[in-house]
Amino acid sequence: MIRKKHTVLFFVTVLAILLVCAGPVGAAKTFFAVATGGTGGTYYPLGGALAQALSTKILDLIVTAQSGNASTANLNLIRSHGIESAFVQNNTAYQAYNGLDQFAGNPVKNVRGIASLYPEVIQIVTLKSANIRSIKDLKGKRVVPGDRGSGTAVDAENILQSAGMSFKDFGSLDWLSFAGISQRMKDGQADVGFITAGIPTSSVMELTSQSDIAILGLDDALIKKITDTWPFYAKVTIPAGTYRGQEQAVNTVAVMAQWVVDADIPDDIIYQLTVALWEKGKYVLRKKGDQADEAPSAAAIMAEVHAKGKDVTLETALDGMAIPLHPGAAKYYREKGMIK
Question: Do residues 126 and 176 lie in contact, with contact meaning Cβ atoms separated by under 8 Å?
């Protein structure tokens, strides 16, 4: 059963819409939450937009979004049935389902997929004053590899392992969210931050407004070693000009952001959510007799609120889906001829 609970909404506008769409007094409402990430990342605004769009299209279902501590923490919430759904990285979802790495001996067997959303680019952000030209130059530096328990921290560890390094090589090590990384680097208290998110990332853009930064590129040999070892990663290029002062394109690797769900959620609920994610529909009527206006897909709304929302497409919905689909989502993709 889906838990009947309230969660903190991201945007005041979401609350306003829910109030006008609440329907007749006394009507039963089902609450469904999406755990996202820190306020400085991409999960946060996209999760808020997704929740708002779904709530206005599905009768008697209130979808809310709440900030979270990123992939690993969100998957632990799924395991304990503490949240209905979450945004996570596909590599961390695979590790969770199969009980690998940080999930060894404690797999998340109840996690299921709804959709892959967009590529999450691993950005190694450095202060230009730190004179870092290669991954080996991180030795002895003050590094923040993401928040403790986050998918970003796992990405940092994997890249370092491929380069023959570890966290022990750093001069100092701290664990912070994207916003915390930005602040620490603005204060001159860290040389490097790992950020895995859609580009451009708001926390990096904020950092460039006060500090001169560089995005560390990975050479082809290192990228090949990373992708050969961990098939979740793919080579990507951060285009020149993505951030202020970034004059050259930068090669790095990426994973996929995915929307995952607790397997216990009923199939009909997940089917409705999947349809609303990808298809146009009608807004929920405010009262009997009103005319229902056409509502865009949730994916279209996400494209309006963030640049990475434009990468959320049905064509890539199953890319990197290395865990089982929820039956409700699978029903939709089967109808679209995308799976058998």
Answer: no
pLDDT in the model for residue 39: 82
* Residue from 202, 306, 319, 300 nearest 259 by CA: 319
Nearest one of 103, 25, 10 to 306, comparing CA atoms: 10
What residues are paired with 196 via a beta bridge? 122
Would you say residue 176 has pLDDT above 70? yes
At residue 39, the 3 state secondary structure works out as coil
- Over residues 216-226, the mean pLDDT reads 96
Is the whole-model pTM more than 0.70? yes
SS3 280: coil
- What domains can you pick out in the chain, each with its CATH number? 12-117+258-335 (3.40.190.10), 120-256 (3.40.190.10)
Check residue 18 and give its pLDDT. 39
Among the residues of the chain, which ranges form H helices? 12-20, 43-55, 70-79, 90-98, 151-162, 178-186, 202-208, 220-229, 267-278, 298-305, 327-335
209-254-69-183 Cα dihedral, nearest 10 degrees: -20
